[in-house]
Amino acid sequence: MNIKHLILAGFIVLINPLTNVAQTGKIKNVELIMSGSDPNIEDAKYNIDLAASNEATSNMAGMWGWRGIIYTVIASSADTSIIALNSNKDAALIAGQSFQKFYSFPESDQKKYSALDYANGYVVSAIISCFNEGVSYASDSGSFEKVKTYMSIVDDLLKYDKEQALFGKISKEKALYISWQSAYTNKLVNEEIELLQKLIDIPSYMNSYVFIRMSEIYLDQKNYDKAVAFLEAGKIKIPSKSGEFLNQQINIEIERNNIQSLLVKFTEGIQNEPDNKDYYFSRGVSYHQLKMEDRNNQEKAIKNDEKPAKDKYYFSQGLADYAKAIQLDPSYTDALNNEAILLLDSADYIYKQRTRVESSQYAKYDKLSVALYGQVVQKLVALYEMNFKKGQELVDLLKTIKSIYAKLNDEEKRSDYDKLYKQEKSKLE
Description:
- The structure is a single chain.
- By secondary structure, this protein is an all-alpha fold.
- 76% of the residues lie in helices and 0% in strands.
- The chain is built from 21 helices and no strands.
- It has helices spanning 3-34, 41-53, 61-76, 80-83, 91-102, 107-110, 115-137, 144-157, 164-168, 172-185, 189-200, 208-220, 224-237, 242-255, 259-272, 277-303, 315-328, 333-353, 359-385, 391-407, 411-428.
- The longest helix has 32 residues, at 3-34.
């Protein structure tokens, strides 16, 4: 090798160290600027952006730490000149991602250029900035991925935050919940399920709605068993909210018309809230429906010359619950109405049974049916006088009243209510 080649070789060997020194100088400049009493953020940004774009320093812990610090200042500043440096509205994102990268380095690398000392003081502000940015997008259509990115940064950086995001004002749970809200807004059901499950899996998280929302999702999919399973899990984890879970379970059983399960749920509700009139009323409706199913099945069997099955349910069960609901609230018109209807169904049943029993029992059944019809008509007249019914419902009520008076052989009353019936009917026509 001649002397020329030696010089060139030496030059080539020397150029890389000189370049490294020049670029690491940018990081040192940033350290000096930021450690001053009145740091020039624009100069600091200029220097750190150069360091970030150069191969020699782009993968240095110190660069990432100071980049996170500077962009945190930009993202959280109220100074208009500093805000102007955030023209792309991405300072919080850059700050968060820079700190993520910084903390991935060994601690020995983090300590260089004083980056670790300063980073630990600024990371809480970066978390707050990222959280606030995520919240600002949460209600926007098409923003889910952006929100998820910000909240993932929050979740990741919290473990490096000694102040714990200002003592719990921001937490992993809140970040997940905001992400879920965005998924909900954007109707991303699969993403909802993933995020809700993460919240459910946090032992200390006690928000009953995450269980209820998960149940709603599976109810929409007609996956009733899974919908109920989440509510049962909610009861175990948050027993104080069992009433909320129970009400959702009732909705599910109504959706799939599972009357037997509804009986169980309404009984559970009564045990928890013995003065809840709605639970008594609703259980009365369930008993009423089951009794009418019994009766209809028996009628079908008789028509087919088959032996009817024995009663599984009784009119008295529904009547007792309606009566309790009325006792709790004497003005409970729905309960008053259903009590009268159930009594009428009972009277009709006894009236029909007169012709199916032995002749010696006819008078007994006839007398009982008359007594029941007498109770029914009193209740129906009371409902009429309360102006409870309107339109077609009022017409039907008057028609029922006049037909009962006909069965009771009270021609005067039958005639009076027939006139009222015709008057109301004509109004509709």
